[in-house]
């Protein structure tokens, strides 16, 4: 009987500890990767169970002197942070530029587009001639490399050529395989797009 009582007390203590952590620790959004109907497009469910949990969207403790609304991209660890303030941030898993295409610096969001057209740069067409058919732009859609949303990054020199964008290739998250842009799962870029404002500061580490 004494052991049973101890087990009950231990269970209650554990549940209290978990509840305490959830109020000051992280909130997971793992259930937010289901099928989505958006602007006439039917985004399929992401098999999120196949994506390492650290790359699932979640609220985390994150100390930063940057103002709320700032975006910080940690290319080494493949995370993007949207600063909320008070030591908190929403963290997203990302895919980054492969070797030779990495970049870092400070920019700002100049434009935001839902279901954008993708136009491959001339340098990319030179490397991949089969993309020449999209020189005039690839129509929006489920196979478009920019996915459901794109945010265009400008710096002091104007258009940096880099984007924060969605991707139909959910299995590229956590990897370095893009041409320099920062890619997120489509359900995540929709969430980030709704949080981020034109003019927001973007820091790429």
Number of separate domains: 1
Number of discrete helical segments? 3
Low-confidence stretches: 1-25
Strand order of the largest sheet: 1-4-7-6-5-14-9-10-11-13
Q: Percent of residues in beta strands?
A: 25-35%
Structural class of the secondary structure composition? alpha+beta
The major sheet is characterized as: 10 strands, mixed
Give the rounded overall mean pLDDT.
85
CATH level-4 homologous superfamily: L,D-transpeptidase catalytic domain-like
Distance between the termini: 57 Å
**Rg from alpha-carbon coordinates:** 20 Å
| Number of beta strands | 14
CATH class category = Mainly Beta
The H-and-E topology, N to C, reads as HEEEEEEEEEHEEEEHE
Shape: globular
* CATH second-level architecture: Beta Barrel
- In the CATH hierarchy, the third-tier topology is known as L,D-transpeptidase catalytic domain-like
The amount of helix comes to: 10-25%
Protein name: L,D-transpeptidase
Family: Belongs to the YkuD family.
Signal peptide: 1-19
Pathway: Cell wall biogenesis; peptidoglycan biosynthesis
């Amino acid at each position: 009987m004494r052991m049973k009582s101890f087990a009950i007390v231990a269970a209650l203590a554990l549940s209290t500890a978990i509840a305490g952590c959830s109020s000051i620790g992280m909130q997971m959004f793992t259930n937010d990767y289901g099928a989505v109907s958006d602007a006439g497009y039917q985004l399929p469910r992401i098999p999120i169970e196949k994506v390492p949990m650290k790359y699932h969207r979640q609220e985390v403790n994150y100390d930063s002197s940057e103002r709320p609304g700032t975006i910080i991209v940690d290319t080494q660890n493949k995370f993007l942070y949207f600063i909320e303030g008070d030591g908190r941030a929403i963290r997203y898993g990302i895919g980054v530029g492969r070797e030779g295409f990495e970049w870092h610096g400070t920019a700002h969001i100049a434009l935001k587009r839902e279901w954008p057209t993708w136009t491959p740069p001339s340098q990319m067409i030179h490397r991949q001639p089969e993309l020449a058919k999209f020189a005039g732009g690839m129509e929006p859609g489920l196979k478009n490399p920019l996915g459901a949303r794109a945010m265009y990054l400008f710096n002091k020199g104007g258009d940096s050529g880099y984007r924060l964008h969605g991707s139909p290739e959910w299995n590229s998250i956590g990897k370095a395989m893009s041409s320099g842009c920062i890619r997120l799962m489509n359900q995540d870029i929709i969430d980030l797009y709704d949080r981020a404002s034109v003019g927001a500061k973007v820091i790429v580490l």
